[in-house]
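Retry 2 of 3 after timeout on previous attempt. Resubmitting structure tokens to design endpoint.
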């Protein structure tokens, strides 16, 4: 029991200071990558395998938390579903494609685009919960985002590759989607249903949540470290690339938050539905993007998904702190 309490406290601590720890591991990755550059070059295949492993370990816990028991009931809010799909699968990818030529390197451009066509992150529903938004709408959008991503990621990347004259290894992309989306979802639900049957939904949705969050956060921090280590020498020599990724991704996230706030109010969504749509649209699962980038395009393309968590979390938290003003805005006639 005592050990359980320690792990729960550690989970909440890491979640509270996630931004700080993300910055720490980014710096640690750059430092270690430069010190052990020769070792990294000699063990690139091992590092690639570790990246895939820790990406799966980052994604799997969130799939256990994905509530698919009452799937049809969660799709009733059609306006929220349609607007969410537009933000996730049309607005975000198209804005990313529009901004991508600002990167001088094509692999960085591809990595940036990939980072904006993957499904929502596991943290999204947590933000919705804190904001007192609709968990039902958030869960439905998470499922749509997941299924839609499996179908649309190869299409978007294929079209973008044609635009910039880069050959796209579709078989590697499909393989990476299988590793990061399909297999974790199957394993996660295969874990969830027996646990729900044996222990009840409260155990899986509430009691187990801090431990799953802890596993996700630790795996994500290790994953970010490994990703940065692979291209540490490049980051060290050209730090402005990091700034460029952060600025361009901030534009996309702020645009999604701003657009959804205005449009959702215009179409008479309530506050609860809006917060679900906003967070599920603005956040992306960068672990999925990292594996696609590493497996299909190489380490340089994985820089955007490694760096984006450093800005994604603070912007979401900033929007979360506006919840009272946003609620008043949506309740105003």
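Retry 2 succeeded. Sequence:
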């Amino acid at each position: 029991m005592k050990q359980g309490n320690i792990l729960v406290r550690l989970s909440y601590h890491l979640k509270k200071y996630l931004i700080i720890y993300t910055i720490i591991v980014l710096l640690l990755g750059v430092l270690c990558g430069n010190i052990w550059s020769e070792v990294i070059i000699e063990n690139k295949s091992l590092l690639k395998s570790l990246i895939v492993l820790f990406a799966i370990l980052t994604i799997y816990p969130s799939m256990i938390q994905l509530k698919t028991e009452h799937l049809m009931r969660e799709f009733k809010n059609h306006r929220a579903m349609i607007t969410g799909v537009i933000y996730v699968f049309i607005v975000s990818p198209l804005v990313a494609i529009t901004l991508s030529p600002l990167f001088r390197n094509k692999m960085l451009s591809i990595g940036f685009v990939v980072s904006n066509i993957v499904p929502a992150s596991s943290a999204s529903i947590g933000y919705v919960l804190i904001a007192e938004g609709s968990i039902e709408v958030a869960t439905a959008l998470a499922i749509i985002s997941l299924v839609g991503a499996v179908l649309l990621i190869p299409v978007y990347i294929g079209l973008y590759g044609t635009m910039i004259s880069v050959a796209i290894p579709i078989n590697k992309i499909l393989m990476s989607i299988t590793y990061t989306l399909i297999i974790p979802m199957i394993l996660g639900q295969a874990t969830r249903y027996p646990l729900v049957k044996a222990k009840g939904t409260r155990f899986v949705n509430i009691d187990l949540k801090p431990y799953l969050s802890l596993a996700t956060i630790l795996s994500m921090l290790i994953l970010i470290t490994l990703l940065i280590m692979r291209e540490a020498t490049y980051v060290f020599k050209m730090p402005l690339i990091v700034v460029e990724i952060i600025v361009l991704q901030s534009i996309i996230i702020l645009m999604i938050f701003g657009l959804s706030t205005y449009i959702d109010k215009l179409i008479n969504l309530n506050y609860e539905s809006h917060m679900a749509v906003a967070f599920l649209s603005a956040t992306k699962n960068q672990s999925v993007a990292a594996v696609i980038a590493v497996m299909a395009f190489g380490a340089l393309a994985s820089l955007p998904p490694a760096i984006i968590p450093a800005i994604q979390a603070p912007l979401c938290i900033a929007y979360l702190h506006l919840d009272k003003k946003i609620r008043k805005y949506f309740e105003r006639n």
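Attempt log closed. The first helix runs from residue 2 to 16.
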